[in-house]
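Hi support team,

I submitted a single chain yesterday and got back a structure, but I'm not sure I'm reading the token output correctly. Could someone confirm the output below corresponds to the sequence I sent? I've pasted both exactly as they appear in my results page.

Thanks,
R.
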Amino acid sequence: MGMRHASAAVLTFLACSGLVPSVLPQHPAEAAPMSRAEARRQAAELASLGHDMFYDASLSQSGKLSCSTCHSLDHAFGPPNDLAVQLGGGDMRQPGLRAVPSLKYLQAVPQFTEHFFDNEDDADESVDNGPSGGLMWDGRADSGHAQAAFPLLSPFEMGNGEPGQMVSRALAAGYGPRLQAIYGRQVLDSRDAAFEGFMRAFEAFEQDHRSFYPYSSKYDAYLDGTAELTPQEARGLDLFNDPDKGNCAACHISQRGNDGTPPQFSDFGLIAIGVPRNSDIPANADPAWHDLGLCGPLRTDFTDRPDYCGLFRTPTLRNVATRRTFFHNGVFHELRKVVEFYVQRDTNPERWYPRNADGTVRKFDDLPAEYHANINTEPPFDRQLGDKPALSDAEIDDVVAFLQTLTDGYALAGRPDTSSGGGQ
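Hi R., thanks for writing in. Yes, this is the structure output for that exact sequence:
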């Protein structure tokens, strides 16, 4: 899946199962199977439409916020600043609740499931990895078109109160004829069909491998045998993989799949690691408010599962060095601090958490105590107060050096950028 080119990927879900909106009324002739050439034409037109809408601020209530405002091309389709949450809504003053994730490398994320078994091409298919997959921090969107709808309708993002408002703005911007050219004139007979069609356009645009999953980092070149890691980067890779040191690869898989696909640097699992509460998020001014991830409040289907509280999906580490906000609440702003937190969370909690009135450290202060049992204690989180951290300062520098090799756009001298799709 990771190596699939955009034309093949979009062709598959156009022609086989789904880019024709399920709510779209079809004439019998139009319901006939498309030829490959027609499917490719529609895929290209749909992706072009999605591209133009992605950069169009007129689709928001304020007229000032586009998808690209928060998902910047120059920042791996992540936030262009170090704000923990972005501002939006009709007055562009409404704060969000979570840090903006990157939109890159989402094509490999499976649909959400409570019981995820690795397939035979990737790893041990006998191991139940628990809740995994889905898009967004809590995994509540199972497709690119479903994900696209959330920010468009959110009152603190693009602010369209309901799908019909977004459709009206898209039609006013002149996108109606282009949608009709793809799906037929009748697509605009139903606001639901038009809205789904526009969402499918965003999805098609984000299937462009050149922009969203090029596999063009130095590490990809290293795996292909066309680049060498520096001694520091190589040490960092070893520490990243070593289960007795960083143990990062336990969740951020760094090896190719058994079928040769490039590593995604995520096992797609949802995990609780107990990051500190971020006072920069306005919602956190209320001490009773907590973002519990998989069990709410933005996701509502698992509110009765206390064992899911505090779990958030493991993001890819590809392009992580381009970010200035980390974790679901954007509490850290430097990559090195993130690595330090991982190896010192339990050995030096006073560095990360506030103190109670009696001087004791209030560990895991962003998660109610009744959910602390959900927090991961696998290495390097298996240390105790006062133990030696899993990584020294020098080793942290080595790991950070390795993580910098995961940034897309690497090219060897005299060679073109290896952005053709991951070693095909």
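A quick pointer for reading it: The radius of gyration is 22 Å. Let us know if anything else looks off.

Best,
Support desk
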